[in-house]
Amino acid sequence: MKLVCIGRNYSDHAKELGNAIPGEPVVFLKPESALIPNGGPITLPSFSSDIHHEIELVYSIIRKNGKAQADKVSIGLDLTARSLQLALKEGGLPWEKAKAFDGSAYVADAFVALESFPKGHHIDFMLKKNGHVAQSGHSGQTLFDVATLIATVERYMTLQPDDLLFTGTPAGVGLIAAGDRLEGYMLGELLFDLKVEKAPSKR
Ligand code: ZN
Predict the structure, then answer these.
(1) E strand map for the chain
(2) How far is the CA of 174 from the centre of ligand 1 (A)?
């Protein structure tokens, strides 16, 4: 199973980081080892004190008649070591150290079947940090819809059943620190409630 992630899919977030609006989806990967166990906690990595939250809609992939498609949706966190990512970007280097580290991804365990939504329905989601809304958005705000994302990814790599597609984050990304509480909502329902813990002590 792999986590396929999309960057810069909300123009307001691309702008807040000073990134150009992409002409084609930005694609990167996280390994399965990046996943935080269900219920958390989020454990900060020892190599960075600049970890940002990004809440995202996450779609689970199935294959039907030889074609990949999304069948269910939930929310997750794409945790990012921001200053390290900026340094890697400036150096023209891959992002994995900043995006694919252990504990850099969370996916809520409750998924909703896409067929339960009327056509054109916008799926809204929100992240609260310490009780205050930090990020909110809906699926209608993306630059590229899910079908376009899947078609783009599949030009380069096969999507397999149970792969997860992170579809980018709206504006409002920000620092997390030990002691913070992150609550994720989709369609008004609380789907995750995670505590942030400090990095393991260095040896
Ligand atoms: Zn992201």
Answers:
(1) 3-7, 26-30, 42-43, 51-53, 55-64, 67-78, 80-81, 105-107, 112-113, 124-129, 132-138, 164-166, 174-175, 181-186, 189-197
(2) 12
Among 3.20.10.10, 3.40.50.2300, 3.40.50.300, 3.90.850.10, name the CATH number for the domain at 3-197: 3.90.850.10
| pLDDT, tens digit (0-9, with 9 covering 90-100), for 69-120 | 999 999 999 999 999 999 999 999 999 999 999 999 999 999 999 999 998 8
CA of 23 to the centre of ligand 1 (A): 17
pTM of the model: 0.96
CA of 6 to the centre of ligand 1 (A): 6
Cα-to-centroid distance, 107 and ligand 1 (Å): 13
